[in-house]
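Shipment paperwork, digital attachment
Item: protein structure file
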Amino acid sequence: MPATAEVTNHDSTEMTAILRARLTQQPLWEFALAFYGQPGVEQACLVLQDQANVDVCELLWRCWLLCHGAVPGPTAEEGLVEALSWQREVTAPLRRLRRRLKPEAGVRPGVAELRKTLKHAELQAEREALGRLERLALATSPTTLTPAPSTNVRAADTVLANALGLQKKTHLSTLHTLIASLDPPPAPR
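Attachment content:
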């Protein structure tokens, strides 16, 4: 993870420029693929999605920002509404239909092919959502991102749990698994 101390020692305009450069060097899509591919991360994301109604793209976006020592500021939180709307209106219906067809796909080749097409469309919709979130993070407003209050694991747990509205112990434990998988995990400043 990039050293965040150097970022927070500058004024907010300079911090924003440095942070934007770092985020551009590691695009959200690339981060999401690498992070999601780590052992246990996919399962943890799906548990939070299915049991706690967490939007996985939002979760990945917040982890990406946290890895760079940032959290969404007021402008980003307001802009998040649009990305979540995309997820509800486009991605979620594709996911529901794909999941609904799973039993029938095992016995009907045509349905299996349709399910494969839906899975590809769902992935493209998620990629579009991540692209929207990345553009939101890279927006020029000084209130788009703010420095993370701390980059240690416990603080990261709290920041993400609060942002995602997680309270159940099982969900918090799953979230902790994700944070521990960040490469490298948040470290003290």
